Amino acid sequence: MGNEAIVHVVDDDLAVRQSLSFLLASDGLPVRLHQSASAFLDTVEDGLTGCILTDVRMPGVDGIEFLRRLKARGFTMPVIVMTGHADVPLAVEAMKQGAIDFIEKPFNDDLLLTAVRIGLDRHQRETQHQAQSVEIAGRLKSLSEREKQVLDRLVAGKANKVIAFELDISPRTVEIYRANVMTKMRAGSLSELVRFALLVENGGETAARP
Prior knowledge:
Blueprint: E1 6-10, H1 14-26, E2 31-34, H2 37-43, E3 50-55, H3 63-73, E4 79-83, H4 88-96, E5 101-104, H5 109-141, H6 145-155, H7 160-167, H8 171-185, H9 190-202
Parallel strand pairs: 1-2, 1-3, 3-4, 4-5
Helix pairs in contact: 5-9, 6-8, 7-8
């Protein structure tokens, strides 16, 4: 399947799986069907893109436990849970476990398709964000120790004169380091440089050493 964004339908009811497959495919969405949470976990590989549409009540591994296991495996795909009218408490628990939305049965086709589209768009943005963070982290590693010190202070909002004083170098030298940082980070402006640094920091990396 490669890295194609796929809607993974996880439901023990064959009729429901077939109905959802037809609905999603008719809307141009690639679909893969799984008869149980265990089947999904046993057959899919990490790093998938797309989203998961799962029933909350299933024999064996139910929807709540499924969400827990997905989290433990490191899956980041958005999960939409399907519930019955009497399962609102389970739906709330599913949200606490990381589901992005829940749809009550019988559901409106347009409502479900909208939820799935939102899930797919969300995962695409998160995947792109992560890829950009990795790329920018690589640029950060190319900076010298002094360039990292200058970057750290630029991100903190300090002026060139303040940076020069703190690092015991001339303002002109700070300007040279700043220009080098901008070039290596491929930033067109100071605001873009700060955004790059914060993007990596928010992605779990450290923008610059203290």
